[in-house]
Amino acid sequence: MHDIVIRGGSIFDGTGTEPFTGDVAIDGGKITSVGGKAGPARRDVDASGGMVTPGWVDVHTHYDGQATWDPLLAPSSWHGVTTVLFGNCGVGFAPVRPKDREAVIDLMEGVEDIPGITLTEGLKWDWETFPEFLDALERQPRAIDIAAQVPHHPLRVYVMGERAVRREPATPEDIAEMRRLAEEGLRAGAFGFTTSRTDSHKTTAGEMVPARNAEVAELLGIGGALAATGTGAFGMNSDFDDETLELDWVTRLARETGRPVWFLLTDRPTDPTRWKRLMAGVHEARRQGANVTAQIAGRPVGVILGVASSLNPFSIRPSYAALERLAPEERLAQLRDPELRARILDEKPSADKVERLPQFTRAIATRWDKMFIMGEPLDYEPIAENSVEAIAAREGRTPDEVAYDYIVGGLDRFMFFPVTNYVVGDFEPIREMLLDPATLLGLSDGGAHYGSIIDASVPSYMLTHWGRDRTRGPKLPLPLLVKQQTNDTAQFFGFHDRGRLQPGLRADVNIIDFDGLRLHVPEVVQDLPAGGRRLVQRVEGYQMTIVGGVPTWERGEHTGALPGRLVRAGR
After folding, report:
1. Which residue in 183, 77, 190 sits closest to 135, CA to CA?
2. pLDDT 10s digits, 310-332
3. Which domains does the chain have, with CATH numbers?
């Protein structure tokens, strides 16, 4: 008598092979048989006509804070994600001394757009060191599995104090201590170490993050912790100011440590061929025996613009800025006043507000040709004729008027502005990256950018757009799309007990109505500590999600079960 048998589904086992029809049996939290006809069960689940896949393993999230107060970790858990990895981009909340708590909150707010007041209210701070942070996470019940990486910025502040904030060079003693603490975190179960070296990451005051200009000696020194433990990956977000220098030390680090090294890669509006140069560098590093990988996104990283979100083309104009402290409902009512409308439309963006925006987001002030109305059905690969600029030309209005009048139509109205990965106006560069064997799918940023970006839905989008709905170019095979966000992500980071539907592995499973899988337009909900608001994106089509052999979501409803846990590397 099995615990659960999923019967008659189309099984995509995560290996990339073609699907086959059969049963999946689960006992004691593990998969015990795949394919064929399983025996009787305490619970039968009819999956006929549906896809049966491993649970998604999402390796680029920022649930560092939310994981301390939210057991569900939505919206990722709505989208079939059963394991999340956070501590990305060098930001996080450990190690941290009590006197530096406000500073690391400010870092997370500035870099990942998570309201400081929400973090101040939500974080319990029952830790100081990174191992203590993991222990605190382990005490919390939750719906899905979580895992963490050691973040560079708080580590640097912990060791160097104000010198880190001033971005001073680390001394040999500083480097040795950071390496010791990184090793301590890895031995406690961290899945790696991350840093960021990009102008896109700033504090709320517009200052660069502590490790922005960390010297190569510091990076190699800390990276030695991975060699000492034989575990973990080294990850970063970098502007590649000097591409040759950056690729050289990344290659050296991977070769000397024997550990995987990854960096984030998208195309950039200011340099359309940059991604190809960097991918060539990845392949050269691999030819030299270095395990270097580019982590990529499955769709454009796009800002959601509206009255209810934290950013729109008018929020950087003086008269709109005066309304920022109002509740969205009150702000919307005032924006509908004809006199205020005329005044805002007549104003120019405030230079200091534009300067504080991340480098590529600043284009919302001028690039109406890259701004698109979000409606039903959702279109993340829109044609130029549907841009705000094109609509304005057809209607004989200015782009400002088209955008303003649309977003003041309601708090549920948003525009989409692709920040990266849409330089050529279609997905061909993304498709090439997805098909490159030296890339890894990630960058969903679940748990971050609460007011401006909602990409936690990417795991579902990979199936709907790339596997079913795309019309502007070739689709991608469903077995590949499943493999890229299950086996590939799991194996890269060392989650060796999951990511495939095979006997003996952890029973993390999705049952999906592929034809009925559908993303909804983003919406704003007010469910954060201190009454904070955030963007979420709902989905239809997940018939069931199972975590560790326990059904957690059935047809969009949480079952009440909380079988998730903290996963420690090597345990």
Report:
1. 190
2. 999 999 999 999 999 999 999 99
3. 2-54+507-528+539-558 (2.30.40.10), 56-300+423-493 (3.20.20.140), 305-418 (no CATH)
